[in-house]
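To assess whether ligand presence alters the predicted conformation, the chain was also submitted together with guanosine-5'-diphosphate. Input:
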Amino acid sequence: MRDHGSNAPVLPPEIARRRTFAIISHPDAGKTTLTEKLLLFGGAIQMAGQVRAKGEARRTRSDFMKLEQERGISVSASAMSFEYGKNWFNLVDTPGHEDFSEDTYRTLTAVDAAIMVIDGAKGVESQTKKLFEVCRLRDLPILTFCNKMDRESRDTFEIIDEIQESLALDVAPASWPIGMGRDFLGAYDLIHDRLELMDRADRNKRGQSIALDGLDDPRIEAHVPTELLGKLREEVEMARELLPAFDKQSFLEGHMTPIWFGSAINSFGVKELMDGIAENAPAPQPRLTASRQVGAEEKRVTGFVFKVQANMDPKHRDRVAFVRLCSGHFMRGMKLHHVRAGKPMAVSNPVLFLASEREIAEDAWAGDIIGIPNHGQLRIGDALTEGEDLRFSGIPSFAPELLQAVRAGDPMKAKHLDKALTQFAEEGAAKLFKPAIGSGWIVGVVGSLQFDVLASRIEIEYGLPVRFEQTQFTSARWISGPQDKIDAFVKANRGHMATDHDGDPVYMTRLQWDIDRVERDWPELRLSATKETH
Ligand code: GDP
């Protein structure tokens, strides 16, 4: 699938230096803290703590954000870009809560690598595993950061074993921890033969880094007490015997992960991880479309929308479509071809998400994420090109697993409800179905928490209290097949039919038996649980 071999195309230097990645983790493993430190060492923020402080300032403006805070979840994904040495990093944030896995899935279509953060005391947790499976579907290369080594953690071999066993992934240690918990000293960098010491006095500073001629270099003795040094030498020897050495090709193919041991809060191991991304994570990779593969080196600009976010600024009812540029050199003011609409679109005020503030982008390259403010013209999955009718593959829309009817608390305001629901459907926050019989809407989501978030957002953003109620349906399936058969089917099953917000027919039921029966009685039709967005 992926071609990382010697016949891979030569990328222009601006594209070759880009690294576009996401962080995946179980809640509480330290993703936010690590993000702050990446930005700190990327020079994007002056002092760690700003990501959160900024978040809090925003929260005071919007009660919706309070919900995020109360539940300890982050609902909205954003992108941040910054320079690191010779490289340009695009960090795409993924929502952490499992109810938002669909959003996460789409976010992962926009990156070329992922950092997996695990808590050294907890190992591979449920959400880590789920997110990892999504990465595996795309063979995404993964770098692992084992965090919180300043606390009592598990034995190093045990952690590595667990990753190998539970994720079926080869693990190559890039560093080896020295001591643990209160005795944690730092780590030995196995790739560059350096001793990295943790600075306990200043959490935002890197500790000392000492180049050595291997573990037998006597200079190490000045820094590591005899007992810990003996254990380190023994463990590293064992690790070199038992564990595979880092193999870049296997990493790029998604079969092997390098692991660093660190402590994000103490800024320890972060720089090594960033160097690992710069040295090993791939430059912008080709993307598949229905007709052909698009290479990042191609001169003409292409990109696709992987996320739409509304009301980023509560003062303006704007929406921002997040676009992953797949090829070319984008310049502000360019007229791009909006493939689905079949129309040109002038992109005059694209936003580049620099870590501190949103900024107007004058130009951007393949691999970058730009935000395009719009009034609803751009939807998830849309392609932008310089004229070619491309459709990017693999941006799915999942069948919701929970369906509920929604009612406006004030029936006079039903129109506002229509508008609010349409917006959220276009944002990808929920599926919206209009039943063929009766009035009102049915809303479908993947996890029940999404109903709370929707109710809260509709109330805050539209001033409209709403109620969600049970319906007689529990499953929704999209229908495809010859048009005359679809028409006949819709006519015969009106009580079960609805249309989604694109106007496509959807069959709703509460029984698997119904679905089986339809498949038997209507062999020309296909019922499916996912719909590729276009
Ligand atoms: P997220 O939910 O994955 O974004 O995790 P956070 O970054 O919010 O971290 C969860 C908790 O773990 C917070 O209280 C952090 O201060 C703490 N934490 C993060 N990194 C470390 C670390 O290296 N050592 C210790 N002891 N605590 C940490």
